């Protein structure tokens, strides 16, 4: 019989240093309260396609990348499917996306920088401002930087290369490791899955390809950074991560864009494959500007004793629709989906998570935190499915919402399907607002009203923040401060 039970997270927090909170506060004091990613560079491209999508554009992208025939054919099939699929009739309003007003491919430079000095000065300046080289020097095992449609810089520590770890852009992965890419590309998210997965498959460019051999641990995170610069642009990166038996990898991605009056489209596809006993952590901290439609399909498969964790922070954008998912395909496989969203004036954060239990003794948690302000809208969508025969499966779904103003909105749409009796599951949802007593207490200690509300929001999001490496926890708290000041969106 299905019963309600509390499920603890299958993964521990990344940082358990007791001085963590003090260090976070000290680090935040030195950060300016301004949206530092809102600038744009003068457009200088080796190639920029005209607006609109056609078979000729799809063929041109594949031809310029010198791809094998099977990939060109896959792109064209996906393009035909994209045309045949209707726009989603649920979730956020996407009717204002004009697919004919988008540049689908922009190449900022010839080749790819193997050292930071190889990158053109204007592009290098952009990533210098974003702190990418500094972050690489400090604590990252590898860095990949994508500017518009192409990865312009890539680096991987030598000791990982010697262990057989592959971390490169997806285009290089296809050229240099075609047998692996052909085996796994589209195996988790086929192009027929949805309209935007079809669009990505047709025009994908850039993204990351990661392969971790059997038994290898990549203890220091790999990072990719995605930057949209031009207006009316589309970014369609494709990421594929394969972790062989008993391996471990943590991949972190960040995203920014300038503020334009015209809209841009970011539509990515991410596929993760965690083989027996492997662990993949995938962390996203996005801070798109308020003119970006962010429509992303993320999905993973976890085999016997494997663990997949999606850690997803959604701030900024005009509309975000993103539901990281995991198929639990082997006994004792585990899934953790932890998401946080902040919807400010005019923004829609439609996010959540999905887990399908396809084997016995599997475990999953879906935890969502959302904050809405002004006229912002946040929607949680969760889907949990436990198939017949998946006995002793354990799952919990929890969504908590905080509303800061009378005009904002928060909703939940959980779906739970259970075809097996011998399981344990639970679901919980809460909605709260900032209490007058909490505000009075903090203000009586010398904080302004804004500072007090920010502290309350930070405490509300703490279960999510604790899952992040400290550098990213600092960045998230800074972005929350920006949202509270109305400096973004």
Describe the structure.
The chain is of the alpha/beta class. The chain has one domain (20-485). 25% of the residues lie in helices and 36% in strands. The protein is built from 13 helices and 24 strands. The chain has helices at 20-29, 55-64, 69-84, 121-130, 132-139, 158-162, 170-176, 178-184, 195-203, 436-444, 449-460, 462-465, 470-485; strands spanning 47-48, 106-107, 142-147, 150-156, 166-169, 208-212, 217-227, 234-235, 238-243, 248-256, 264-266, 269-274, 279-288, 292-302, 307-316, 319-322, 325-328, 334-343, 348-357, 363-372, 377-386, 393-403, 409-418, 423-433. Strands 5, 6, 8, 9, 11, 12, 14, 16, 17, 19, 21 and 23 form a 12-stranded mixed sheet that branches. The chain has a 10-stranded mixed sheet with strand order 4-3-7-10-13-15-18-20-22-24. Strand 3 and strand 4 (150-156) form a beta hairpin. Helix 7 crosses helix 8 (178-184). The longest helix is centred in the first third of the chain and has 16 residues, at 69-84. The protein is globular and about 65 Å long. Mean pLDDT is 79; it is low at 1-16, 30-43, 109-113, 135-142, 148-154 and 257-261.
């Amino acid at each position: 019989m299905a019963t309600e039970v509390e499920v603890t997270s299958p993964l521990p927090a990344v940082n358990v240093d007791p001085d963590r909170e003090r260090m976070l506060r000290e680090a935040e004091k030195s950060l300016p309260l301004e949206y530092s990613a809102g600038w744009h560079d003068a457009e200088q491209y080796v190639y920029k396609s005209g607006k609109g999508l056609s078979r000729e554009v799809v063929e041109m992208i594949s031809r310029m990348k010198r791809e094998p025939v099977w990939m060109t054919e896959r792109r064209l099939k996906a393009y035909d499917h994209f045309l045949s699929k209707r726009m989603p009739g649920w979730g956020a309003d996407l009717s204002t996306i004009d697919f004919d007003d988008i540049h689908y491919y922009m190449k900022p430079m010839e080749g790819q920088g193997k050292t930071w000095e190889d990158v053109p000065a204007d592009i290098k300046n952009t990533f210098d401002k974003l702190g990418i080289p500094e972050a690489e020097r400090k604590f990252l095992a590898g860095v990949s930087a994508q500017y518009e449609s192409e990865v312009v810089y890539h680096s991987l520590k030598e000791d990982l290369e010697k262990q057989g770890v592959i971390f490169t852009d997806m285009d290089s992965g296809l050229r240099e490791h075609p047998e692996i890419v052909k085996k796994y590309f589209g195996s988790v998210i086929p192009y027929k899955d949805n309209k935007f997965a079809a669009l990505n498959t047709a025009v994908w460019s850039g993204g990351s390809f990661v392969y971790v051999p059997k038994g290898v641990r990549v203890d220091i995170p790999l990072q990719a950074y995605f930057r949209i610069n031009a207006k009316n642009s589309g970014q369609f990166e494709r990421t594929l991560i394969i972790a062989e038996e008993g391996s471990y990898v943590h991949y972190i991605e960040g995203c920014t864009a300038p503020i334009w009056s015209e809209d841009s489209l970011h539509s990515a596809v991410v596929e993760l494959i965690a083989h027996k006993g492997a662990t993949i952590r995938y962390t996203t901290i996005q801070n798109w500007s308020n003119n970006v439609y962010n429509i992303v399909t993320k999905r993973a498969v976890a085999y016997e004793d494997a663990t997949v964790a999606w850690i997803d922070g959604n701030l900024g954008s005009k509309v975000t629709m993103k539901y990281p998912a995991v198929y639990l395909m082997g006994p004792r496989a585990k899934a953790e989906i932890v998401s946080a969203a902040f919807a400010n004036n005019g923004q829609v954060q439609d996010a959540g998570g999905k887990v399908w239990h396809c084997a016995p003794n599997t475990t999953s948690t879906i935890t969502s935190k959302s904050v809405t302000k002004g006229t912002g809208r946040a929607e949680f969508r969760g889907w949990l499915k436990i198939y017949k025969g998946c006995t002793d499966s354990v799952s919990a779904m929890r969504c908590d919402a905080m509303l800061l103003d009378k005009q904002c909105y928060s909703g939940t749409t959980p779906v739970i399907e259970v075809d097996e009796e011998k399981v344990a599951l639970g679901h919980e949802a809460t909605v709260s607002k900032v209490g007058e007593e909490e505000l009075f207490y903090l203000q009586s200690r010398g904080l302004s009203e804004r500072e007090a509300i920010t502290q309350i929001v930070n405490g509300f999001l703490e279960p999510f923040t604790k899952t992040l490496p400290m550098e990213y926890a600092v960045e998230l708290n800074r972005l929350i401060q920006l949202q509270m000041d109305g400096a973004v969106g």
